[in-house]
Design goal:
Chain A: This is Energy-coupling factor transport system ATP-binding protein. The complex is a heterodimer. By secondary structure, chain A is α/β, with parallel strands linked by helices. Helices cover about 35% and strands about 20% of the residues of chain A. The termini of chain A are far apart. In chain B, about 20% of the residues are buried. Classes of the chains: A alpha/beta, B mainly alpha. Bound molecules: adenosine-5'-diphosphate (ADP) and magnesium ion. Magnesium ion binds near residues 51 and 170 of chain A.
Chain lengths: ~280, ~270
C-alpha cells in the first residue's frame, strides 16, 4: 500500500535561504514511511530535530534536500499546501498559543473557515467533534476558562473538524498535569482506533509504549526505529539517547544485576509483576 | 496585597433587550451618524429631540441607570471642566454674577449648558453601544461594514481577525502580568508606594518579560494558524453570522427621520 507520508532523504537547514555553507543541518538524510492508520511515537533529546521533522510533514517548512510526500503530493509545491494542511493536522505544545477563537465554537470553526466549509456543515461537524473530545455544552465558553487538558482537547477538536488523515502531536502533553495528559492520551488512542494516522512526539517512554512503532531521533537523524517492546532490551541505549528509563525496566535491570533469576526477555509491566510473584511464592 | 482587578473588556453587560437584540451593523451606523447630526441641533427644540432619543435609548437598553452612569463617569470630570471654562470665559448678554475677578454672563451659562449637554449625549450614545454589544459583535459588525472597502485595499477580514485575536489574548496576557508581578513581589518589588515616577519605573521589570512572552506567543500562534490552513481572508467562510431583522430597518428609518427633523428644526 502507498504510505500516507514518505520522506526521501529529506534534510533541513534553518538558514538555507542564505546558503551559508557552515549552517548546521537541523535534519539530515531522513528516510521514513508512515502507513495509513499507523501510530508512531517520535522520541529524542531536545534539539534532535523532532519539531523540524513535524513541520516538514505539513509544508510549514520545505526540505532543503530530498523530498517529502503527503498522500502522493509533493510538499515542495506551493499549490499543494492547502490540501496538505487539510490532510495533516498538528497539535502543538503550548495550549494557550494555538487557540485563535474567542469561544470554543469559534476556535473549532477556524480551520474549517479557512477551508471554505459551508456554514451548515461547520455546525454539524462542531457538534460532532466536541462530542468526541468531551467538550459538548462548552461551545460558548471562553478558552481561557478551560483547563490545560481541555484546551489541548479543544485544539484536537479544531484539527479533527478539518477531517485530516494524519494528526501530529508535537509534545502536546508536555505542559499538562497528569490528569490532562491522560485526557489527551485517551483522545489520541481513540483517534487511532477510528483510523487516523497518529504521529506522537514525546519525551515520555511510557507514552511512546502506546504506539505501534517508535522512531528515535538524534542529531537530526533517525537513530533507531522499531516496535516499542524492543526498547525494553535496550536500557543502555535509552540512557545514551538521554531518554527517561521506565520504572519497570529499571527495576528489572537492577534485580537482574542483584542476581535474581528474572528473564531478560520480559517486555512489559504485567510480565514483570508475574515473574516477581512467582519468585515470592517460591520461598 | 490585592490581585489586580481584571478589566471588563468593552464593559459589555449581557441582557435581553431591544438594544441588545439589534444587529451590530445597525447600531454602529446609528451611533456613527448620530454623532454627526448632534451638531445640527441649534435650539431648544433640537436639543429636546436629542435628549428624547438618548433617554429612549437608556430605557430600551434595560440596563440599570447606575451602570450606565459608571460608564459615563470617567468623562464626567472633563465635561464639568469644559462647562466651567465656558462659564468663566464666554462674554455676551447680561451679567448674571460677579465673583471677584470672574464675571459670568448670560451667554456663558447658555454655552456651558449647550456644550455639556452635547458632550453628555455623545458619550451616552457611545456607552449604550458598548454596553449592549459584545466586543465580538462589534468586530463582526465593523468587518461587514468595511467589507465593501476590501476592493480598494482595506483588508477588512484580516483586521477583524486581528481584533478578535487581541480580544482572545487580553485575558491570557493579563493573567501572565499578574503572575510576573507576584514573582517580582516575592523578590521584594514594590508596585504600590512611592511617587508616580517611581511607580511607573517599578513596572518596567514587569513589562519587559510580558512583551518578550507576547512576541513568542505571536510567533507560535502564527505557526498554528498556518498549520490550520490560514491563508488570509480570501475564500474563507464564516461561522459567525449577522441577521438583519425588521427592527434594524426600523432603527435606520428612525435615524433618517431624526436627521431630517434636526435639519428642519435648525432654521
Ligand atoms: N527557528 C529556528 N531557527 C534556527 N534554528 C532552529 C530553529 N528551530 C530549531 N532550530 C534548530 O534546529 C535544531 C532542531 O530543533 P528542533 O527540531 O526544534 O528539535 P526538537 O523539537 O527535537 O527539540 C536545533 O539545533 C535547533 O537549535
Ligand atoms: Mg520540539
Amino acid at each position: 500500500m502507498e504510505p500516507i507520508i514518505r520522506l526521501d532523504g529529506a534534510g533541513f537547514r534553518y538558514d538555507h535561504l542564505q546558503e551559508r555553507p557552515e549552517a548546521e543541518w537541523a535534519l539530515r538524510g531522513v528516510h521514513l514511511q508512515v502507513g495509513s492508520g499507523e501510530y508512531i511515537a517520535v522520541m529524542g533529546p531536545n534539539g534532535s530535530g523532532k519539531s523540524t521533522l513535524a513541520k516538514l510533514l505539513n509544508g510549514l517548512l520545505l526540505p532543503s534536500e530530498g523530498k517529502v510526500w503527503v498522500g502522493g503530493l509533493d510538499t515542495g509545491l506551493e499549490k499543494n499546501h492547502p490540501l496538505i494542511r487539510q490532510k495533516v493536522g498538528m497539535v502543538f505544545q503550548n495550549p494557550d498559543n494555538q487557540i485563535v477563537g474567542t469561544t470554543v465554537k469559534d476556535d473549532v470553526a477556524f480551520g474549517m473557515e479557512n477551508l471554505g466549509v459551508p456554514r451548515q456543515e461547520m455546525l454539524k461537524r462542531i457538534d460532532q467533534v466536541l462530542q468526541q473530545v468531551g467538550l459538548r455544552g462548552r461551545e460558548a465558553s471562553s478558552p481561557h476558562h478551560l483547563s490545560g487538558g481541555q484546551k489541548q482537547r479543544l485544539a484536537i477538536a479544531g484539527v479533527m473538524a478539518m477531517r485530516p488523515e494524519v494528526i501530529i502531536f508535537d509534545e502536546a502533553t508536555s505542559m499538562l498535569d497528569p490528569g490532562g495528559r491522560r485526557e489527551v492520551l485517551d483522545a489520541i488512542t481513540e483517534l487511532h482506533r477510528q483510523g487516523t494516522t497518529v504521529i506522537h512526539i514525546t519525551h515520555s517512554v511510557k507514552e511512546a509504549f502506546q504506539a505501534e512503532r517508535v522512531v528515535v531521533m538524534a542529531d537530526g537523524r533517525i537513530e533507531w526505529s522499531g516496535a516499542p517492546h524492543e526498547l525494553f532490551h535496550r536500557r543502555e541505549k535509552l540512557t545514551r539517547w538521554s531518554l527517561e528509563v521506565p520504572l519497570p525496566l529499571e527495576l528489572k535491570e537492577r534485580l537482574r544485576r542483584r542476581g535474581l533469576p528474572i528473564r531478560h526477555e520480559i517486555t512489559g509491566t504485567e510480565e514483570l509483576v508475574e515473574s516477581l510473584w512467582k519468585l515470592l511464592s517460591r520461598d | 496585597m490585592s490581585r489586580l482587578n481584571h478589566p471588563v473588556i468593552g464593559q459589555y453587560i449581557p441582557a435581553d433587550s431591544f438594544l441588545h437584540r439589534l444587529d451590530p451593523r445597525a447600531k454602529l451606523v446609528f451611533v456613527f451618524v448620530f454623532m454627526m447630526i448632534v451638531f445640527l441641533a441649534k435650539n431648544a427644540a433640537g436639543y429636546s429631540l436629542l435628549v428624547g432619543v438618548a433617554l429612549s435609548g437608556v430605557l430600551l437598553s434595560r440596563i440599570p441607570l447606575p451602570m450606565i452612569l459608571r460608564g459615563i463617569k470617567p468623562v464626567l470630570y472633563l465635561i464639568i471642566l469644559t462647562a466651567l471654562l465656558h462659564l468663566g470665559m464666554t462674554r455676551g448678554g447680561d451679567v448674571w454674577w460677579e465673583l471677584g475677578p470672574i464675571t459670568v454672563y448670560e451667554q456663558g451659562v447658555v454655552q456651558a449648558t449647550v456644550i455639556s449637554l452635547r458632550f453628555l449625549i455623545l458619550v451616552l450614545m457611545g456607552t449604550l453601544l458598548t454596553l449592549t454589544t459584545s466586543p465580538m459583535e462589534l468586530t463582526d459588525g465593523l468587518e461587514r461594514l468595511l467589507c465593501p472597502l476590501t476592493r480598494v485595499g482595506v483588508p477588512a477580514q484580516d483586521l477583524a481577525l486581528m481584533m478578535s485575536i487581541a480580544l482572545r489574548f487580553i485575558p491570557t496576557l493579563w493573567e501572565e502580568m499578574d503572575k510576573i508581578m507576584m514573582a517580582q513581589r516575592a523578590r521584594g518589588a514594590d508596585f504600590d508606594s512611592g511617587h508616580l515616577l517611581r511607580r511607573v519605573k517599578s513596572y518596567i521589570p514587569v513589562l519587559i518579560p510580558l512583551f518578550i512572552s507576547a512576541f513568542r506567543r505571536a510567533e507560535e500562534l502564527a505557526l498554528a494558524m498556518e498549520a490550520r490552513g490560514y491563508r488570509g481572508g480570501k475564500g474563507r467562510t464564516r461561522i459567525r453570522e449577522l441577521r438583519w431583522k425588521k427592527e434594524d430597518t426600523i432603527l435606520l428609518v428612525v435615524l433618517a427621520v431624526l436627521s431630517i427633523s434636526l435639519w428642519w428644526l435648525r432654521g
